Amino acid sequence: MPGIVSKAPGQDKTDALRQHIQAVSRGALPLGKLLDLLSEDLDSMNIELSLWKEEHAKNLQAYSSEQSATDSILEPLRQNLEELDQRIGDELEEISARRAAIFSNAERLEKMLTVANLGR
């Protein structure tokens, strides 16, 4: 048949394969760009992580210094409080002893008055 161009026996398969390869290539190009951007993002995230770690270490050191300063300021106050607690305990014991003495003296006085009233 004149004017009709016949394709070679494997030409259809070759064309289909070529189209598939081109489609894969077109899809791979954005993926490659995405991987480049991902790499840049990871780099910037790692830099930011390093900055946050430095900030954390600096703040941890500042906290430790403040804690130490606070403890050194509070230590004399704690000792003073302990001494005051001891003095309060001593005073309470003294009050109890005096109450007991007053009670004992009151009993003795009552007995003496009872004896004095009997003698009249």
Automatic annotation (TrEMBL):
Q: Which residues form a coiled coil?
A: 35-94
The answer to whether UniProt assigns keyword RNA-binding to this entry is no
- Give the superkingdom in one word: Eukaryota
The record ties this protein, via Pfam families, to:
MIP-T3_C
UniProt-listed GO biological process terms: cilium assembly; intraciliary transport; regulation of microtubule cytoskeleton organization
Taking every annotated instance into account, which residue ranges of this chain make up the domain TRAF3-interacting protein 1 C-terminal? Answer: 11-114
Q: What is this protein called?
A: TRAF3-interacting protein 1 C-terminal domain-containing protein
